[in-house]
Amino acid sequence: MTAADPLLAFRDRFPITARTNYLINNSLGAMPAAARARVAEFLDAWDTRGVRAWGDGWWTLQERVADRIATVLGAPAGSVSMHQNVAVALEMILSCFSFDGARNRIVYADRNFPSDQYIYEARARHGAKLVRVPAASDGISTDVQQIVDAIDDRTLLVAIDHVMFRSSAIVDPVPIVQKARAVGAFVILDTFHSVGTVPLKLREWGVHAAVGGALKWLCGGPGNCFLYVDPDLVTSLQPTFTGWAAHKQPFLFSPAGQDYRDDGGRFATGTPNVPALHSGMAGIEIVVEAGMPAIRARSQRLTQLLVEEAQRAGLGLKSPLQAERRGGHVALDVPDGYAVCQALAAREIVVDFRPDAGLRVAPHFYNTEAEVRAAVRAVREILDSGEHRRFLQAERKPG
Ligand SMILES: Cc1ncc(COP(=O)(O)O)c(C=O)c1O
Prior knowledge:
Bound molecules: pyridoxal-5'-phosphate
Radius of gyration: 22 Å
Distance between the termini: 34 Å
Number of helices: 11
CATH architecture of the largest domain: 3-Layer(aba) Sandwich
Order of helices and strands: EHHEHEHEHEHEHEEHHEEHEEEH
């Protein structure tokens, strides 16, 4: 028995774990059984209360979900707004800046999630000068010092992923924020791969803004992404991407123009995604109940076991070997990765494959040591037997 075993008491709350070796929690966290009841509540309210459901609680649900997420971010209540996806959340914060002045540089890392890079790069059309920092010499992480050195008084924005989506390497945001604050630049941290598995202290770190979502480690399903903005900066920002939900009194439907809210709700747009918010709350609450320090400790134990088992099995690794430098997943560098991933799925072992990363294996607090061992053993068996060959021509599907 290990000290973290009490977390396995949560396992029964995630039904898929009874059927499947579910090790892809950095992509889509397992559905908590309680989410079904929450979505049923939404349907019941729509069915029985109709439009009155807005006043019964639908309208303010986005704030309740946002405040619950804030506790996991190490951020105060009222500092977070909810969005359909990270792309929208990034567009929202970017809409607060113009790039036609002398300070117009965006410093970002080429190991960041590509979608974020597309969004920053599109700003070049509005005058932004792009400073793309290459990967560290190990090829799998971002060199913090290189980012720090790239920031100067021409830098408007600094965009970093907290945990690299391919390798799981952690980027320490603190020195980056310190340099950015010293020269007057604004840091946007993408926490998608850390929130819910690596403890976050956004307020303490001094990060200006952060994005992320609940569908991975927070087990909240799609449609529950968020934007955090430092409460000290909120009223100095005027998003051009806006809507009536960002108005102080939306139900006045005032023709007198936008009157932005003074809290995180300033970064809302229009009608909230009510079904998604219903499905999202259950997982976030369970993560809060389990507690981030315990989740991180268990994650480090499981990923360390994964690394050791993979090394014993002679499999390549594309993740940092030290647990404290790693987020919640481990990338296994194996030949024919996509086909191996399909062969694992045929054995009801679910991981994913990403080009230039390999197989991403991502145990959460409800996974067992036995599942981690079984997955590594299966990869070895598949490669040795050639079981994956029938998937070599398989069409790439989303996921
Ligand atoms: C680090 C990171 N940022 C951004 C995204 C894209 O998010 P979205 O699809 O919500 O725009 C992802 C998707 O997995 C991601 O891993």
